[in-house]
Amino acid sequence: MAIKRRFIPTRTLHTGMKIDQMVVDATGRALIEKGAYLDDFQIMELIKRGVTGIYIAEGEADEDDMTFIPEFTQKVIEQNTKPDPQKLELSQEIKKRVNEGIQFLYNNTDSPDFVQNSENVSGELMKSIMDSDAVAIDLTTLKVSDEYTFKHSVDVAAMSIIIGKNLGLPDEELKQLGTAGLLHDVGKSKIPNEVLNKPAKLTDEEFAIMKQHSVFGYRILMEKKGFSDAILKGVLQHHEKMNGRGYPMNVDGKFIHKFARIISVADIYDALVTERPYKKGFEKRTAVEMIMAMTSELDINAMQGFLNTVILYPVGKQLVLSNGEKVKVLENIPGYPLRPKVVSIATGKIYDLSSDVHCASLVIPGNDQEA
Predict the structure, then answer these.
(1) pTM above 0.90, yes or no
(2) Which helix (H) or strand (E) holds 263?
(3) Mapping DSSP to helix (H, G, I), strand (E, B) and coil, where does residue 328 land?
(4) Which fold has domain 4-65?
C-alpha cells in the first residue's frame, strides 16, 4: 500500500504515527520535525499548545526505515521521558523590538536618551524572559537576528540573563547584567569600518585596534553617568581571562567582575557558532566542548551555569550514537549537555550517557547526527 497523507484531529493521534509536516510554535521554531514518529509526550505537547490537527503519513513503511518506534520502546519512552525545563522563547514581536532597539543604541551612542533607551530595551528583554519563566536555552533555536553585531549582542544578553538566573542573581542584577550584555560590544561603533567589516582575518595591527572596543565601550557608557559600576565593568572586562591573559588590561580573576565573567562565556560561545565572512561557525557540540576546555580562562561558576542552562539535544530528538544505534532523547541532565539520557529505538535499552560507566565510550558524534 502506498503511503498517503491525511489530516487528523490531534486528540485522535496515537503513538507510532508518522507526522507528515513540521510543527512549529508561534515564534517559528520547530516543535516536531517532519517524518518523526510520535510518542505520547509529543502528542500531549501538541494538545497543550492548542494544535487542533496535523498531517500524518499512512501506509506501509519502508523496511529500511529504522526510525519506526516499536511498541515496547514506546512504553519505555512513556515511562522514562522527563520534559526539558522551560526554555527561552522570544516572540517575533519581542525579537523585532529588541533588535531594533539595540540597532538604534549602537548607531546613536551620542543620543541624550541613551541611558533610558538602554534600560527600556534591557527591561523588555528581561520581562519577556521572566514572564516565560525560562530557565534553559535551546541552543538549536537561539537566534534573534541575521545581522551579526546586533544578533550577537542580543543573544549574549539573553544567554547571560539565563545563566545569571541559574546562578541565583536577584532580578535587579539580572536586569543590569542584561544591559551589560546588550552593550558589551557598543565600543565597536568607534572601530573603523574597514577593520570592523573586513571580510578576511585581521592583521596583528588591525586586531590591536579591534581589541580597544571594550575600552571604547566603557568610555561611551562612563560619559553618560547613568550606568552602574557593575555594567561598566561588565563591558570593559568581558574579554579578560581568569589566568590574566585577556585584554584590555590583562587582569586576573580576582579583579574581574562577575558580570564580565558571565558575559565572557556567552560571548565566546556565540562567537564560536556564528558564521562570519572569514570563518565558518563551529558545530554547537564542538563549541560546547571548547567552552568546557577553557577551565584556566573562564570562571568555573559561570561555565557551570552555562552547562546547567544549555540544551543541545531537546527531549524527543532522534539521534545516532557512535555505535550506530538510533536513539531518542529521554532526559537532559543539568551540567552534561553533551550526554543526555537516551533510549535505543530498536531495543528499548536506556543509555544514561552522563553517569553510567558502561556508556563511557559512547558519544553523540559531530554534525549532530539525527536518526
Answers:
(1) no
(2) helix 258-273
(3) strand
(4) Molybdopterin biosynthesis moea protein, domain 2 (3.90.105)
